[in-house]
Amino acid sequence: MAAVQSDVEHDMTLLASTGVEDKLQRNVRETHERLRHTVIRVWMLTGDKVETATCIAIASRLAERSQGIFRVAGLKSRNEASRALSRFRRESGSDVLVIDGSSLQILLDMFPEEFIELAATAPSAVSCQCSPTQKATVVELLQKQLGKRAVAIGDGGNVVGMIQQAHAGIGIPGTEGMQASLAADFSVTSFCHLTRLLLWHGRSFYRRSARLAQFVIHRVLIISIIQTVYCALFFYAAVSVYSGWILVGYATVFTMFPVFSLILAEDVSGWERKGDRMTGLSGPFCKPITNV
After folding, report:
1. Domains of the chain
2. Which of 35, 79, 176, 238 lies 20 to 30 angstroms, CA to CA, from 198?
3. Do the beta carbons of residue 195 and residue 34 sit within 8 Å?
4. Based on the number of CB atoms within 10 Å of its own CB, is 32 exposed (0-12), middle (13-18) or buried (19 or more)?
């Protein structure tokens, strides 16, 4: 191939050069800022080069201007990986971690637990030149090592393994296809919809599910204790104090309204309206109130 290339490509005149601009979606900066102000740690796993990924992290406000960037690149041996971890432990305070794919693979092979623990202390992390297998491995280690809930977000076919490995996968339909959206648990049309999906719907659903579970347990305990006391009074005979229709009605009709009240309850008004902009999942989001 080199011989053919040198034989063909000579005495040629450059006519033009082209470039493809990779634009960020709308409201990406605001979304990262809101997620960063919560307890959510954001990791960006990308296949871009280190310089490109660093520029994207700064442009999308994944790294603030006041924060430093700690780069780990070009590791080739166990000793270099150990020195890089020691330097990161000493020097990193609020720095954003940026690591390339080859160095990430060495750290995952040599010091997986130590690397994950140290990287979790950073406000955010950027992993460059990652393969789909590495993305899924990082998500798996974050879940096992830290014991936290992991949400994987992507818009291409190379993130399907990562989305399926995480506790919750969120797919975004993009120009690369619908693979991520079809393989994910949730699908949104834009990255900025994560704010409302995580901070409002996620919180509300978790709160409602917890209260509903407690209600179901208490509902069963009430009828079970009455039945137990009734049987004890009659020398533990297998006699039912309720008929079949009463049990069915108690589990459905009689206790139906508290269930609906728990599901539809809202303790705070999730989002404010700003001008004529919509606050639903189909439009840009407004500023959340402070206690969300």
Report:
1. 23-148 (3.40.50), 149-189 (no CATH), 203-292 (no CATH)
2. 176
3. yes
4. buried
